[in-house]
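Hi D.,

Good news: the full-assembly prediction came through. Inputs first.
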Amino acid sequence: MNESIGLKAHKVIINEDECKGCGLCIEMCPKDVLFEQPHLNRMGYHPAGYRGEGCIGCGHCFYACPEPGAITVLKKGYVEIEEEV
Amino acid sequence: MAKQLIKGNEAIVKGAILAGCRFFFGYPITPASEIAEAAAYYLPRVGGTFLQAESEIASINMLYGAASGGVRAMTASSSPGISLKQEGISYCAGSELPVVIVDIMRGGPGLGNIAPEQSDYNQMIKGGGHGNYKVIALAPNCAQEMCDLTMLAFELADKYRNPAAIMADGFIGQMMEPVEFPEALPRLEKKEWAIYAEGQDDDKLICSILLDPPELEQHNIKLQEKYAKIRQNEVRYEDYYLDDADFILIGYGVVSRVLQSAVDELRAAGIKIGMLRPVSLFPFPTEHIQHLAERVKKFIVIELSNGQMVDDVRLAVNGAKPVEFYGRMGGVVPTTDEIIANVRKIIEA
Amino acid sequence: MAVTAYKKAASFYESYERKSGLKDVTHYCPGCGHGVLHKLIAEALDDFNATDKTVLISPVGCSVFAYYYFKVGNIQCAHGRAPAVATGIKRVLPHSVTIAYQGDGDLAAIGGNNILQAANRGENITVFFVNNAIYGMTGGQMAPTTLLGQKTTTTPYGRTTANEGMPMKVAEIISQLDAPVYVERVAITDAKHTMKTRAAVRKAIKNQLENKGFSLVEVLSVCPSGWKMTPVQAKQWVEEHMFKIFPPGVYKDESAERDIREANKFIFSTEDIRSKLDIPSQEVIKSQIPQVPERYKDPRMILAGFGGQGILMLGVGLSEAGMEAGYNVSWIPSYGPEMRGGTANCHVNLSTNRVGSPLVSKPTVLVAMNLPSLDKFEDLVVPGGLIIYDSSLINRAPQRDDVEVFAIPATELADKLGNTRVANMIILGAYIEYTGVLTKATVLDALPNFLKKKTMVPLNRIAIEKGIEFARQKMNKS
Ligand SMILES: Cc1ncc(C[n+]2csc(CCOP(=O)(O)OP(=O)(O)O)c2C)c(N)n1
Ligand code: SF4
Ligand code: SF4
Ligand code: SF4
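Then the structure:
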């Protein structure tokens, strides 16, 4: 993995449309990087939000989340271009 | 042609294997155990699998799984075991799985006895399980047909993606008669809906649940259309001296053998009588009976039951002519003389 | 390779087209444990490159719709029957990864026997067992795993030992069996337990890939809706209450000891099939139906005696030889419990016409090898018919005066030949000679075809010849 061309920091993407606001990711995050957002999504849930700062890319939030596509964790060094190819 | 003197139960297994069946899931019950035993003996010889399940419920569900994998597979049981399989049969019908189920019927209700009865007609033909479904049902009356109709059951099951049953009784199963096994074997094709676990399964689904009422209704309509096609194409029966018959005896399975002897004797005594033997119980020879009703005087239905198939004869005749019934229960098979005496009584009434 | 991303597994459909409504979210309630386990399974399938050969079986329960999500071969089946269905398809597709995904009502209640038996057979399948201590799908009724005191809609006052018994410990039970290779109970309450679950899921699938046998992972899960808790409370409840009754841990693991084997694929073959099925390849009709005196023509026979006298074999012999002579034949035994101990009888038809009823109610021939049989069947014989009886065992002659009677001391003659069990063949020989229904040549030709024990052919042959000789002497005398 060539870190110089990949992500400079861990990155968590929350797909708000798929989030059911269960709060499990927030509970599970060891660094308190996740939080409940005040607004409602299309299903009427308060989706989880990501602060970014302090995230260690541990993936706990990913495994806590019951929705297959609600959370994506990209670790430092991840090359997003790979995806598009 | 090479003939072999064998039991009907064994003819079923050989016919099944010739038809390409390589999987058998069973549970012992008299008088069907011999089928399982023969399957256990022959299947490993041809690279197949025999598995004694923990119950009839398990065996029909193993069949459900095996048929999902695109192979020809079967189970066999007798009345109490068939009762247990009904849930699974309904699931097979709903998921449109081609499976073959042999029912060597015995006396009921409850544990009853192991002698021949035909009291599973309703549970198999009218649907002993839940839902708007039909099982193709064939009723052999000799060892040769135990082979031939089993092979046909596999063909029809595949052709219509539907469960098919063989409805026989202990006598037809235990009886030894000469059987000629066909030389030509069917060619088995891959089934485009079946799961092969080689990729390309992701658009396949074996399933009977459809939550949305209109969707489930559509599925049901499709099933009914299929049953209509089966009714159109797959009716099978045997006529015995019907051309000039005033009276028609109707019976299937072992009963038809006794009726044949009765017709011979009654004809010799100058009575214009014949026999209609339904070979397919579903689809039932309804139209044929309707036509016959135009010209005969009376129908006499004989069953080893309290009168189950007779309902279908009555529906077909629809009041046009009298339909009489004579039945024995508990495993008592009427003698030829007994049939003759009772038929005479009915004719003369 | 180090993980660079945690993202939706490729073993999930991109879009859940089979689902109504939103196609990008599951049907599960917020915080439901099913979703978490789904993700762990899908990720493992991705990593093992097993998606293409996976068959997922979803029986009834909230996960009945697992087929919405997993991009594999999907089979939905009846409540509790996943282990049986899995057995069926795994036997057909041994190369597949077959997964049964079951809830606690499904596995431990209605399907209790099916899981025990599949485990005990050591089926090479993987079972994921979701223990959420409740029936989720049907709205929160009691499960076998419901805790004591736990309130559900069918234990509104709490589960009691007196009425419902104790919670069922599935991992413990299954691990008591010899066949399973791996049984572990895990939980998805916190990161540590979830990672253990992840490892367990992978091990259970890997075992199957390596053909090691039956693996079951019991997952302590949450049903926030059924439990009427928030997802976070529900996780705490698992740790506080379920862990005590259902301690997580490895209950059995022989993964390391079991051999890795190649899955053998089922191959359909019809090679040599007729000989494998013991179907004769040659024409069997070798002789012709002999000229038979009118009164003996087309016999309808009842043969009766003690079980063990070979009465059924006698009938089979007549039928086999009859067939080989070109007759239409049928043989039908009395069957079932009646045969054990007591008397045995069979009905035989040899006919130049099609055989109607195989059941003989008016025999033209009765062979009685013991007194009860003579007592029972004598009156049925048609006038002018023939009664053959074993005069070594039956101490009275038939009473009928309108039938022909042929007494044969069959058992004594057989005894002189060294084995009383060939009395039946003595009768066979005597009968064919006496009536001319079959020729000696036909019967001797047929002998090896109906005798199961081939070593017995010579003695039986001698017995048949003895019977023929006896009949000849008898006929010459009269
Ligand atoms: C023969 C039969 N009986 C009852 C039902 C109704 N039923 C559907 S799901 C279910 C219980 C499922 O509970 P569980 O297996 O614990 O799964 P969960 O829903 O909790 O995931 C029941 C009783 C059924 N579908 N079939
Ligand atoms: S990756 Fe770890 S640290 Fe980052 S948000 Fe998720 S749980 Fe928190
Ligand atoms: S765990 Fe998933 S569904 Fe629950 S709040 Fe977090 S992102 Fe949303
Ligand atoms: S009812 Fe319970 S088990 Fe079912 S989806 Fe909801 S939370 Fe999950």
